[in-house]
Design brief:
Two copies of one chain form a homodimer. With 212 residues, chain A is of the alpha/beta class. Chain A is built from eight helices and seven strands. Chain A has a seven-stranded parallel beta sheet, sandwiched between helices. The longest helix of chain A has 26 residues. The first copy, chain A, is globular, with a radius of gyration of 17 Å. Chains A and B meet through helix 1 and helix 5 of A and helix 1 and helix 5 of B.
């Protein structure tokens, strides 16, 4: 019982700080995306493609969340944009206080779009508002098409759903129609974007979503 | 501060119940495997293959863990073996009390091997002992080969590591040698089994591991 109380307090405190962050982002005319997925769905590759395509038109910043290592931040930094790594040291999600600390190391007036790449986990990060404008869940065709039913909260809170690794569709047992149907059962408002971050197929719709 | 204390108490209580479970499993001559992975690594498909191959030789039971739905339990039940579904209702891992409740619905004297399929999550389940003999982490070739460095605790606690979806290796950027090297940095004792649960290639080594 005490655990539930503590968890509720943590989430309440998180939401307060997320509201502060939302105001701060707004004040700086910053559009923010919280990228959420299982490990290995291709979040970082998608982010690299997005940076390469958009960075001449718009100023991008990134907050990277990982349980351990700064591998992803190093991959992003190679694209010459500001990036801050959060290492959660075993923690299974980013929370608003972690993001608040991280962004003190970014010049928010010099950024138009901030991508926050969350810890690879389809469960816990769904509960933590980071003050972002949009939550984007990324699923790959190598995962099962029943994932929305098995991890409903993530699909309920997401604004958009990217189905990545469409290039692997011929080699896996994944039915995109059934996937969409399952996701729409959970969240009828969800926007779907099918693409391959590797080949670039379909990625234009994602760039449009980001810039809209 | 209070959160840390509560978490420590939960883990301590979990370990006490896991120790009870371990004794109970031993008393019933039951060999137990805790299967751990990201969502979509192919745990259930591997389990289905394993059941089909071994069920004439040995009596198998399964505990299925999911955040929501009993899809996996239904897939397993179709293979005519006893299965119990735990739905965590948002919870990100199985714990020993949940398993203790679940196995009251199994006749342990009528089972030789118990597989516990954990919630799809590479972070939280690593911290919860379920009284099992072996922890087996399953990774697929569609995930990045740096996963052991990014999710070290899971690879530290695992006894064996299955690299699944070897049939997709020609279509993905995954270096199995680098993967092993990364995993061995974290856990030099780790046993590796490369296979494709879909085609069956390499799966014999896994059956041997289970039966040994």
């Amino acid at each position: 019982m005490s655990v539930v109380t503590v968890e509720r307090k943590i989430l309440q405190k998180n939401d307060e700080i997320a509201a502060e962050l939302r105001q701060l982002f707004k004040k700086n005319n910053l559009k923010t995306f919280n990228l959420l997925s299982s490990p290995g769905s291709g979040k970082t590759t998608l982010l690299e493609r997005t940076i390469d395509h958009l960075k001449e038109r718009i100023r991008i910043g990134v907050v990277e969340g990982d349980v351990q290592t700064d591998n992803d931040a190093q991959r992003i930094a190679a694209h010459d944009i500001p990036v801050v790594q959060i290492i959660t040291n075993g923690g299974c999600h980013l929370d608003a206080p972690l993001v608040r600390d991280a962004i003190t190391r970014l010049d928010l007036t010099a950024i138009d779009i901030l991508f926050i790449e969350n810890v690879g986990n389809l469960v816990c990060p769904a509960s933590y508002d980071l003050g972002e404008d949009k939550k984007v869940v990324i699923v790959s065709t190598t995962e099962g098409d029943d994932k929305p039913l098995k991890y409903p909260k993530m699909f309920r809170v997401a604004n958009a759903c990217i189905l990545n690794k469409m290039d692997l569709l011929p080699y896996v047992d994944f039915d995109p129609v059934s996937f969409r149907k399952n996701a729409q059962k959970i969240n009828p408002e969800l926007i779907f974007i099918d693409l391959s971050a590797k080949t670039g197929d379909g990625i234009g719709a994602w760039f449009e979503y980001v810039m809209s």
